[in-house]
Amino acid sequence: MGSSQIDNPNDVATEFHQVALTSSYRLSQDWLLSARIPFTDATRSEDGKSDNAIRGLGDISLSTIYSPWTKTDSQWRNLSFNAGLILPTGTPRNNPRTGLFAPGVFQLGTGATQLAVGANYFGSLSDDWSYFSGINTTLPLYESSRDFLPAETYSLRAGISRLITENLNAKLSFDLFHGGRDEFQGIEIGNTGSTVLSLNPALIYSINDNLSVSASIIIPLHQRVNEVALGVGPLSSFGVSFSF
């Protein structure tokens, strides 16, 4: 769940709430399959009055995580690679633009399949401290049937983790995101695309071996948006994880 707005919330603002179901299945020690199914409820408002809303299923993500050196004692045993597809299951709009002001794109789905690839690495600093890092990118494979082409995106994450108690784990990371401009009918949408550096503190509490809960907040530290796009505000999330 989160919200974003420009400096003056009485002009234009959008608020996004999202619930996502994520499931994973381990094929072997080296291979893990994962799926993410998002549901979005978003509202755009101008001068304090709602003028547009979207609700429903978003674009489903399917991915495979491969850890080729888990059975070795090499320094690469904690390195993993991921690859997958973001499927066009969310409903696109005939015209995804909502006006001169951002969001430049306001729709449940892009209407186009995207390729997602990345790599992640983690390691231990001591019994209680560890570190993690990752790099990921998404690339559109084609233009949608409604002439919309989502932008390429790139993200970089680096952080540390500390075991506070036997059940409570705290994480802190810096996340750098860059996205280009989307295209509609072959023309770039001017008020899309951004570069954002964020601080992301998180807490994970293990209730038992199979059940855990988590909470995090993404706090933008620096951001650059194109033209009159909205700046992203703090984004909070809560999760429940169950394994069997």
CATH class: Mainly Beta
Query: What is the molecular shape?
Result: globular
The proportion of strand residues reads over 45%
Poorly predicted parts = 1-9
Architecture, CATH level 2?
A: Beta Barrel
Can you describe this structure in just a few lines?
This protein is 0% helix and 61% strand.
What does this structure look like?
Helices cover 0% and strands 61% of the residues. The chain has 244 residues and is mainly beta. The protein has a single domain, classed as Porin.
Q: Can you lay out the helices and strands and say which pair or pack?
A:
Layout: E1 2-5, E2 12-26, E3 31-46, E4 49-57, E5 61-66, E6 79-86, E7 114-124, E8 129-140, E9 148-149, E10 153-163, E11 168-179, E12 183-184, E13 187-188, E14 194-206, E15 211-225, E16 232-242
Antiparallel strand pairs: 1-2, 1-16, 2-3, 3-4, 3-5, 5-6, 6-7, 7-8, 8-10, 9-12, 10-11, 11-14, 12-13, 14-15, 15-16
Key words describing this protein structure:
single chain, 244 residues, mainly beta, Porin, twelve-stranded antiparallel β-barrel, three-stranded antiparallel β-sheet
